[in-house]
Amino acid sequence: MTFFRKLLQKRGGLLLKVAGGLILGGIVLGGGGLIYCGIMSHTARELPKPGGPYAIGRTVFDWVDQARTETFAHKPGIKRELMVWVWYPAQSGASKEAASYLPSTWAQAWDQYHGGSLFGDWLISRAETIRAHAFENVPLATNQARYPVLIFSPGMGLLPTDYTTLIEDLVSHGYIVVGIAPTYSASVVAFSDGRVVQATDEGKGGSDSDPADVINVHLQQIEKVWAADTIFVMNQLERLNSSGQSLFAGRLDLERLGLFGHSFGGATAAEVCHLDERCKAGIDLDGNLFGDVVQQGLTKPFLFMHHGTTDDCNDCKDLFTQARSVLRTVPTGEKYILGVEGMKHMNFSDFSVMFSPFKLMGILGLIDGARGLSITSAYVRAFFDTYLNQKPSPLLRGPDSAYPEVRFDQL
After folding, report:
1. What is the helix (H) or strand (E) element at residue 63, kind and residue range?
2. Are 154 and 179 contacting, i.e. CB atoms less than 8 angstroms apart?
């Protein structure tokens, strides 16, 4: 017994030494990892350059819908208020210094939201470190008398600026893009008077403890509000277009109006294209559908673009099935379902080219982030060129050797 007791003591001591070494090594590695993350999250990085010939202008509007009472706020009786970002083709050389990724008030709120703690602050690029390519409030380019207009809705909890890479590339090719920041659903919204509001449970679909069926009911209600937001913005754009004091007076070609969005914003695009005849064509980027469009379908040209393909994506098979059902009423030759191999849900946003842990978490796919955004932009532009500008694109005819990651679903 003495022999075995001594052997166990030796082994126990060895195990303690090994465990202690592992803990010490973990602390060293963890500390080194935090230092690395701290450096990377504060390192300046430039978003991919837009590929078109136009310089890019950017401005922001604060619009209040006096016809609607806010339902997501904890303060009763206030009207629905939206911050709306507009990117547009700009005159070259009008400004020497590009605008910040986000204005200071927005950036502080965005960083605080995405940080939330010492470690969180180190795990994702800070807004102040990101360099975009737009110029603030510069003159609209005079190359065209009027420009086609795209209205963009972000994913739940996100801002339209979280898709700056995609939007800037579209604008550089001659589109005006209008991005809606959905108040109380977006992570943070900074109004023109300095007020900052964050998302509420009512605005983002309930709390984490709610059962799935309750959350689904909330999302159906939110979908109605977001659709009404888009229709309100359409009305405001008509007013801007007819106002002699506006930068955009007479310059918005609202007969060439398209809608697109990511995730819940993509579902909103589909619903509004069903509800409002002013939508001439629409795109849903990786969004499950809600609202009447699910049962009643669409009649406008429409494209669904999803992460993954039917061959490599178990979690998106329902998206493909849902898309086929909604497109059953769209004329043949005007409906498309595309999957992109190697992409995940957040690859459609700027997070794919920022420093973040999303790839390790499986929220970003294995595809290079800039490559995924380049593919997205190419097909979004090809679709709107075809149906808004009457310039049919060969990319919509089927697989293309330049983009082998893209698969067309059979309709």
Report:
1. strand 55-69
2. yes
At 381 the three-state DSSP class reads helix
Is residue 315 helix, strand or coil?
helix
For 361-368, the CB contacts below 8 A with 24+ separation are: 365/307, 365/308, 366/342, 367/340, 367/341, 367/342, 367/343, 367/405
Alpha-helix runs per DSSP H in 44-195: 104-115, 118-122, 164-172
Q: Are 272 and 264 in contact (CB under 8 A)?
A: no
Q: Could you identify the residue written with the tokens 């590929």? A: 51
Q: Are the C-beta atoms of 318 and 248 separated by less than 8 Å?
A: no
> Can you spell out the DSSP letters for 131-163?
E--EEETPPBP-SSSSEEEEEEE--TT--GGGG
Tens of pLDDT, residue by residue over 382-397, are 999 999 999 999 999 9
| Sequence-distant (≥ 6) Cβ neighbours of residue 261 within 8 angstroms | 152, 153, 154, 155, 267, 268, 269, 283, 284, 285, 287
Do strands 188-190 and 196-198 pair parallel, antiparallel, or not at all (unpaired)? Answer: antiparallel
The pTM for the full model equals 0.88
Write out the two tokens for 301.
């040209």
The winner for highest mean pLDDT among 108-122, 124-138, 150-164, 296-310 is: 150-164
